[in-house]
TrEMBL record, chain A:
Protein name: Ribosome biogenesis protein NSA2 homolog
Pfam families per record: Ribosomal_S8e
Cell compartment(s), UniProt: Nucleus, Nucleolus
Phylogenetic lineage: Eukaryota, Metazoa, Chordata, Craniata, Vertebrata
GO cellular component, as recorded: nucleolus
Primary localization class, coarse: nucleus
Highest taxon of the lineage: Eukaryota
Keyword Lipid metabolism: no
Family that this chain belongs to: Belongs to the eukaryotic ribosomal protein eS8 family. Ribosome biogenesis protein NSA2 subfamily.
Any one biological process term the GO annotation gives: rRNA processing
PANTHER family per record: RIBOSOME BIOGENESIS PROTEIN NSA2 HOMOLOG
Record keywords: Nucleus, Ribosome biogenesis, rRNA processing
TrEMBL record, chain B:
Claim: Nucleus is one of the keywords in the record: yes
NLE domain ranges (all copies): 18-75
Keyword terms: Nucleus, Repeat, WD repeat
Main location, first listed in the record: nucleus
Annotated compartments: Nucleus, Nucleolus
Designated name of the protein: Notchless protein homolog 1
SUPFAM superfamilies given in the database record: Quinoprotein alcohol dehydrogenase-like
Entry keyword tRNA-binding: no
InterPro entries with a match to the protein in the record: NLE (IPR012972), Quinoprotein_ADH-like_sf (IPR011047), WD40/YVTN_repeat-like_dom_sf (IPR015943), WD40_G-protein_beta-like (IPR001632), WD40_PAC1 (IPR020472), WD40_repeat_CS (IPR019775), WD40_rpt (IPR001680)
CDD domains: WD40 (cd00200)
Gene Ontology terms: cellular component: nucleolus
Native organism taxonomy: Eukaryota, Metazoa, Chordata, Craniata, Vertebrata
Length: 221, 466
């Protein structure tokens, strides 16, 4: 029984056409794919649409080497900056990297600890946020402690980043409580006009120290 | 004796006191002797010259106890310092340059030719040739006798940021924003050798090896934004050594007289390298922000040492003391270092209210000038770093300064388009030189003291003379 019709003359014709011919050409010749006219037109349209980098012209505004890497302030910018400064002074706003800080209630910061034989007394509190301790910190006798500061949340050091230099210093700090802290920057070597070395600057804490286990802050310059 | 050759007129009962001449390093000259309190500096000069027994009398400046200068008479100093007349007063004498450079007063010519802002200018060590680099990618050589253009050298593909003359005055190196360095011949204006390629970002500073270390003027040091410093062999046109170590842009490189290379960088450090093998010797730390500029006390001597324009008195101190380095930074302060020996700075120079753009030792290394973006120039003592005076007058940032070769005058170019010539002794403005239409980017005083050149954003180069 014949399963499929036998191949007709069409197939054999096609088959015949695929005979390999040995052409008299050197073996290394690469044949370029023929580009049709429409492809060329499309490319020309593309070039017109996209901006070409003009390699021949050198950019204007030549500045000496000591002014490269610096943003030259145009006069218009200086004036607008002056006006903005005056407006801010009037409003009394203090510019900080994180301007909006969420207010935290007492229940969030202090956790109630139940003590006593029947766990009914509730006069002890445990601090749930990062707190600062001075160098010579010793706990009060545990029986009389009203505020418990867990050891894991006591900090003396903070990682403070200078925003311009993008360098991080590990500073031993006199850290006061709150999101804006005062930091000891005498290691940085900054100096005032009078020649005195600056030792204190403000920095704003940028993470949740009680979650991360470290304090990261940005220096307010 | 000496007193017999100098007659002191005694008017009534003028007090007398004993003085002892000392030179700057503390060595005493002669015996203490008796002078009236109203003695003037010229008479003190006569005495000093007689004691030193020189054939030609030298001019001197006198400082009572090394602090207060004797200007009108000794009595004024004694009163100011509150010295007792019973004791012997040490009077320090300082030889001054024999020649006087006169302040430049007028613009003799405005050289046009550049089609973009002029960003660097320099006189050759002899003072015969002038070269300028500009934003139009050309380096132009100017003939100083006729004050006309001499050659235009094309070869760079971007702004020519820094130029440096070789210490023998026969070659000029120029570095551009495409990190290429070309060497030019000032006589023909043609490029010597091949373009030196190697840096990956723009060139910030170029410095040749001093003549006394190598008389051929073969090696050139270049610093770049890519954080590396390369020493090039200009004869074979290839890199000899690469010194990496800085983590950010290297802003300045200086080749010292002892074969040490000093580099300053935006990573707040200054590194000292040995030029012979490229090994880092020391890192000088202390700045709190980018270090913009360096100045060596031997800068002027290394620039002009091969030639001797009327520089008759070179301070003998320089030979014995090691060279000092001053660094100016964006943290508004400068440090005075003794880099060959110590890691700690000698002094910290504070007082500016904005970043320090350029510092420069005076040719006799006694004074230091610092130009800052706070519109003032401050003068400091070159040895101790003590603050001396402020020069105020500019209304915008001061970009560059240049000393005259007798160390008495200072010219400064500023963003407010004027140049000002200051008399350092009196701390007063000597000459105001307006004329540029836009910011002045580069100034230089020729080593023979005749001319000052300034170039700026208005694309023309101005030459100023007396």
């Amino acid at each position: 029984v014949q399963r499929s019709p036998p191949s007709g003359p069409v197939h054999s014709r096609a088959h015949d056409g695929q005979v390999e011919v040995a052409l008299p050409m050197p073996p290394q010749v690469r044949r370029r794919a023929p580009v049709c006219a429409s492809q060329v037109v499309l490319k020309m349209h593309e070039q017109r649409k996209t901006k070409q980098k003009n390699d021949d012209k050198t950019p204007e505004g030549a500045v000496p080497a000591y002014l490269l890497d610096r943003e030259g302030q145009s006069r218009a910018k200086v004036l607008s900056n002056m006006i903005k400064q005056k407006r801010k002074e009037k409003a009394g706003k203090w510019e900080v990297p994180l301007p909006k800080v969420r207010a935290q209630g007492e229940t969030e910061v202090l956790k109630v600890i139940k003590t006593g034989k029947r766990q009914k007394k509730a006069w002890k509190r445990m601090v749930t946020k990062v707190c600062v301790v001075g160098d010579g910190f010793t706990r009060k006798p545990p029986k009389y402690e009203r505020f418990i500061r867990p050891m894991g949340l006591r900090f003396k050091k903070a990682h403070v980043t200078h925003p311009e230099l993008k360098a991080t210093f590990c500073l031993l700090g006199v850290i006061t409580k709150g999101t804006v802290v005062e930091v000891n920057v005498s290691e940085l070597g900054l100096v005032t006009q009078g020649g005195k070395v600056i030792w204190g600057k403000y920095a704003q804490v940028t993470n949740n120290p009680e979650n991360d286990g470290c304090i990261n802050a940005v220096l307010l310059v | 004796m000496l007193e017999s050759t100098i007659i002191f007129a005694i008017h009534g009962d003028v007090e007398r006191m004993l003085i002892q001449f000392q030179d700057e390093s503390g060595e005493v000259l002669g015996n203490p002797f008796d002078v009236p309190l109203d003695i003037t500096p010229d008479k003190l000069q006569l005495v000093c010259n007689a004691l030193l027994q020189k054939e030609e009398p030298l001019p001197f400046a006198f400082y009572a106890r090394g602090e207060a200068e004797v200007v009108t008479s000794l009595a004024v100093c004694v009163k100011a310092l509150g010295i007792e007349t019973e004791q012997v007063l040490p009077v320090v004498y300082q030889p001054q340059a024999v020649f006087r450079v006169r302040a430049v007063a007028r613009c003799t010519s405005s050289l046009q030719g550049h089609t973009e802002a002029v960003i660097s200018t320099a006189f050759s060590p002899t003072g015969k040739y002038l070269a300028s680099g500009s934003g139009d990618t050309t380096v132009r050589f100017w003939d100083l006798t006729t004050e006309t253009p001499h050659h235009t050298s094309r070869g760079h593909t971007h702004w020519v940021l820094s130029i440096a003359w070789s210490p023998d005055g026969k070659k000029l190196a120029s570095g551009c924003k495409n990190s290429q360095i070309c060497i030019w011949d000032p006589v023909t204006g043609q490029q010597i050798g091949k373009t030196l390629i190697g840096h990956t970002k723009w060139i910030t500073w170029l410095c040749w090896e001093p003549l006394h270390l190598n008389a051929e003027c073969r090696y050139l040091a270049s610093s770049s934004k890519d954080g590396s410093v390369r020493v090039w062999d200009t004869l074979l046109c290839r890199t000899e050594k690469i010194m990496t170590g800085h983590t950010q842009t290297v802003t300045c490189v200086k080749w010292g007289g002892d074969g040490l290379l000093y580099t300053s960088s935006q990573d707040r450090t200054i590194k000292v390298w040995r030029a012979s093998d490229g090994v880092q010797c020391r890192t000088l730390q202390g700045h709190a922000h980018w270090v913009n500029t360096l100045a060596l006390s031997t800068d002027y001597v290394l620039r002009t040492g091969a030639f001797d324009p009327a520089h008759a008195t070179i301070n003998a101190q320089d030979g014995s003391n090691p060279e000092r380095l001053v660094s100016g930074s964006d943290d508004f302060t400068m440090f005075l270092w003794n880099p060959a020996e110590e890691k700690k700075p000698l002094a910290r120079l504070t007082g500016h209210c904005a970043l320090v753009n350029e510092v420069l030792f005076s040719p006799d290394t006694r004074l230091l000038a610092s130009a800052s973006f706070d519109k003032s120039i401050k003068i400091w003592d070159g040895r101790t770093g003590k603050y001396l005076q402020s020069l105020r007058g500019h209304v915008a940032a001061v970009y560059q300064v240049a000393w005259s070769s007798d160390s008495r005058l200072l010219v400064s170019g500023s963003s407010d388009s004027t140049l000002k010539v200051w008399d350092v002794k009196t701390a007063k403005l000597s000459m105001d030189l307006p004329g540029h239409a836009d910011e002045v980017f580069a100034v230089d005083w020729s080593p023979d003291g005749q001319r000052v050149v300034s170039g700026g954003k208005d694309k023309c180069l101005r030459i100023w003379r007396r």
